[in-house]
């Protein structure tokens, strides 16, 4: 793996870690931030795969656009089109007033993120990542 690819992977993993920490919070929920960091994780992982292949990509936060660039390298990833479409709006639209993520959005973003993340890690010959428990904890009674 090239040093540049590794930098993208490290940034992607940082976003994944932040999403997990925010998602597991019992108080002060910030579902917008969970969804944003899931989107950022996948954006960076897709860019890492492109960098590793020596392919240029535009400056974009659109995971669908990035996925379309990656599909010639990884044809089976067409199955991630819905996941990427789910995540893309969280890059910009949910960062401003007028849209707010709800718990179901965050749960779906985590699921989409985990699926795409694992595929990219396998493609880059990275070891299986530790999968922290990202299920919401129930309040104890």
What distinguishing features does this structure have?
disordered C terminus, Four Helix Bundle (Hemerythrin (Met), subunit A), mainly alpha, 141 residues, 57% helix, single chain
Approximate strand percentage: under 5%
Mind describing the biggest β-sheet?
none
User: Which H/E pattern describes the elements?
Assistant: HHHHH
User: What is the CATH C level class, in words?
Assistant: Mainly Alpha
CATH topology: Four Helix Bundle (Hemerythrin (Met), subunit A)
As for the number of domains, it is 1
Give me the number of helical elements: 5
Description of the structure:
This protein has 141 residues and is mainly alpha-helical. It has one domain: Up-down Bundle (Four Helix Bundle (Hemerythrin (Met), subunit A)), CATH 1.20.120.330. The protein is built from five helices and no strands. The protein has helices spanning 3-24, 31-52, 63-70, 81-87, 103-123. Helix 1 (3-24) packs antiparallel against helix 2 (31-52), helix 2 (31-52) packs parallel to helix 3 (63-70) and helix 2 packs parallel to helix 5 (103-123). The termini are far apart. Mean pLDDT is 92; it is low at 135-141.
